[in-house]
Amino acid sequence: xxxxxLLGLTLLLAVASLLPSSAAETDLRAVIAKFATATNFSATExxxxxxxxxxxxxxxxxxxxxxxxxxxxxKTDSQIFVGKxxxxxxxxxxxxxxxxxxxxAKADLTKIKVNNGxxxxxxxxxxxxxxxxxxxxxxxAAAATMFKTPDAANIEPLDAAIAAETVPGGKxxxxxxxxxxxxxxxxxxxxRLAAIPVIAARGDRDAVSLLTSVEASTQGAVKGAASxxxxxxxxxLAIWDAGQNIWYGISLGSVLLLAAIxxxxxxxxxxxxxxxxxxxxxxxxxxxxxxxxVIRTSFPGLFDWSLVIALPLAFLVAALVGLAIERGVIRFxxxxxxxxxxxxxxxxxxxxxxxxxxxxxxxxxxxxPSWMSGSFDVGQLAITWNRLWILVxxxxxxxxxxxxxxxxxxxxxxxxxxxxxxxxxSMGIRTPWxxxxxxxxxxxxxxxxGVALSQIDNVSPNLGRGYIIDSFMVVVFGGVGNLWGxxxxxxxxxxxxxxxxxxxxxxxxxxxxxxxxxxFIQKRPRGLFALKGRAVEA
Length: 538
Description:
Helix content is 69%, strand content 6%. A hairpin with a 2-residue loop joins strand 6 (375-378) and strand 7 (381-384). Helix 11 (277-298) runs parallel beside helix 13 (337-359). The chain is elongated, with a radius of gyration of 34 Å. The protein has helices at 2-32, 41-54, 60-67, 116-130, 136-148, 155-164, 170-183, 189-202, 205-217, 220-270, 277-298, 306-328, 337-359, 385-407, 409-419, 421-426, 431-453, 465-478, 483-504, 506-523, 534-537, and strands at residues 71-74, 80-86, 89-93, 100-105, 109-111, 375-378, 381-384. Strands 4-3-2-1-5 form a five-stranded antiparallel β-sheet. It has a two-stranded antiparallel sheet with strand order 6-7. The chain is an alpha+beta fold.
C-alpha cells in the first residue's frame, strides 16, 4: 500500500512538472498563430516582439524561418508551419517541436513576407533570446554581438540578463553591452556619461571604435568624456601592440632557430657553406605531406598524429640525403670553400627540380591537426596554437641538441673537431666520420624544421629558399658553431624584424637588419658568442 502511494505521488509530481511547460507551449502557439492575421509588416513585427518577450528559446526556430522566408500559413486552417521546399511540394515542420507534420502543395500555402527592416528586428530578437540560453558560451556570444551592434531596444533584455547571470565575467560583458546600447539611446546625459567608463574598462579596439562614433555624433560633456576615454585606451593599446610585436618576433625567431640550428652545427664543425640546407627543410616538409596523404587515404583516424609520425621520418629522409651529399660531394672539397658553395648550390637546384618532377611545381596542402588549430587571447594579444607549439618544439629541439653536444661522447668528439681538427685526429678521432655524421645530423634537424614550417608556410619546391639567407645571418650574428649564439641570434633578429616591418616594410626591414649585422660583424667578427680553441682562434 505504501509503495502504491509513493508511486501515485511520483506520478502526480511528474504531471505537475509538465503542466507549466504544456501551458507555456500553448501560449506560444497562440502567439505564433497571430502571424496568420498580421496584415502588414508592422503587425508582423508586433508578433515578433511578443514572441521575444516570452524569453523562451523554443521560438528561435519560428523566428529564424521567418527571417529566411520559410514561414508559411496553411490556407485551409490558418496554421503556421516552417516550410522546406521539395520540388512542387513543401515539407511542413512544426515551428516549436521541429517535428515533420505533413506535406502540402505550394498553392495551398501562403508565405509570410518580410523586408530588410523586419529582418533586422528578427536578428535583434534572436540575439535577445540567446541571452537566456542555458549554454554560457551562447549567452556570452550574444553579449559580444550586442556590444558590436548596440541598440536602445537591447537595454531592457540586458538588464534582465545582468540580474540573472551567474557565470564569472559574464555579468561584466552584459554590462558592457548595456553601456554600448545606452550610448546610442536617447537616455539622459548622466546615464551616457556613466556608460563611458564601463566601455573604457573594456580597453580594446571595439571599445575605441564605439567611442569614436559616439565622439563624432555627440557634443558637450559626453563628447569630452569619450575623447578622454579614447586617449586612455589608445595609450594602453600601444603597450599591447608592442607586446604583440614581441610575440610575433619570438614566433619568427623560433622558425629561424629551427631553420638555422642545423646549419650552425655543420658550418661550425666543418666550415662548409651549405647552400642546400634550405632544401633539407623542404624535404622535411614534403615528407610531412606524404605522411598526411597516406593517413588521409588509409588511416583517417590518425590525422591528429600525423606530425608525430612525420617527425622521425622527416629526420631520417633529410639525414640520409645529407649523408649522401657529404660522402658524394663535400668530402672531396674540404678546404675549398668557394667550390663547396658552388657545389651545394648545384645540389640545391637538383633537389628542387627532383621535387618539382615528383610532386609538381604547385603548393601542396598540409593540414593542421586539431591541437594546432585556432587561437586564443591573452589580454589584447592574439596567439595562434600552431605558432605556440612551434616555439615549444624549437626550444625542445634546442635542449635535446644541447644535451647531445655537451653530454654525449659523440658531442665531445664534435666539439673537439671544432676546436682543433688536427689535434682531434691525432688523438684517434675519426674526423671524416665525425664530419659525415655531423652533416647528417644538421640535415636531419633541418628536416624536422620542415615539419614545423609546413604548418605555417606554403609547401613548395621553393620553401627552403626563403630561409637560407636568414639562417646564415642568424649563425654569423650569434657566433659560428655556438648553439647559445644561434638561440639568441634567432630571437634577436626575429624581434628586430617585427619592430622594423611596420615602419620600413618587410623587404626594407630585412635590408636594414642585414646592414646592422654587417656593422656588428665589423666590431665582432666572430659574432656574439665566439668559439674558443687553437684552431678556431688561429
